[in-house]
Amino acid sequence: MALPKAQAVTAKGRTYGGLSALARRAERRQRLLDAGLELFGTVGFAKTTIPMLCAASGVTARHFYEDFASREALLRTLYDRIATTAFERVVAALRVRERTVHERIRNGNAAYFRYLTRDPRRARIYTIEAVGKHAELEQHRLSMREAFVRKLTKATDRMDNRDVDSRLLSAAIAGAAHDLLLEWVLAARRPPVEKLITTITTLWIRSLQIDSAPVQR
Q1: Which pLDDT tens digit goes with each residue over 194-217?
Q2: d(Cα 189, Cα 126) in Å, to the nearest integer?
């Protein structure tokens, strides 16, 4: 005789309402991440408490600590998701060999700025809330930046660099892009995203001395 649905046991644990224990935990974790994105991205990390995160997500404090050791751990997970997606999109655009160097650079910058500005909460977490809040998180953030700069360096090496130091150029471009995004986040009247894309593309093109084609606008 089959057990009722609410009592059925699977290899992944007892199911309730059709969800296994692992599925329920994954669903709670996602709700906590959604709450973190909202609160860290609007109220700010410093003003967000664990009770606030639990209330926003409908998750108990006990279940919060099953997934995250602290607010910082939740912030780190959010930062990782945002930064990894942004970096992967940039590198993917730069590697499209069917495009000209100019197009690849512009498309990479467009991928970066459009993804991060599409949800201002992402941009705030990336540029402000995850910066300098905790020593371990800061070290992790710098490690991710280093990995990104290395990938940019490899991509730049394949372009017409004309004696430009690819490593230094990549570090400079990464820093400039971050600061332009920060300018957008803090601005009372935010500049059009296309201006951010054009600005960083112009810096990159002129540094590589690839001026034969005008910057698209």
Answers
A1: 999 999 999 988 887 765 544 444
A2: 20
What is the model's pLDDT at position 200? 96
The Cα angle at residue 16 between residues 14 and 21, in degrees rounded to 5: 50
Distance CA 179, CA 4 (A): 57
SS3 9: strand
For residue 186, the SS3 value is helix
Distances (CA, A) of 124 to 21, 116, 151, 178, 212: 34, 9, 24, 11, 36
The fold adopted by the segment(s) 5-68 is: Arc Repressor Mutant, subunit A (1.10.10)
Per-domain residue ranges of the chain: 5-68, 72-208
Report the chain (217 residues): mean pLDDT per 10 consecutive residues. 42 56 89 98 97 97 96 96 96 90 94 98 97 90 94 78 80 95 97 97 85 47
**How far is Cα 209 from Cα 206, in angstroms, rounded to an integer?**
5
Which residues, in sequence order, are CB contacts of 197 under 8 Å at separation 6+?
Answer: 106, 109, 110, 113, 114
> The domain 72-208 belongs to what CATH superfamily?
Tetracycline Repressor, domain 2 (1.10.357.10)
Element (H, E) at 138: helix 135-157
Q: Which H/E stretch holds residue 13?
A: strand 13-14
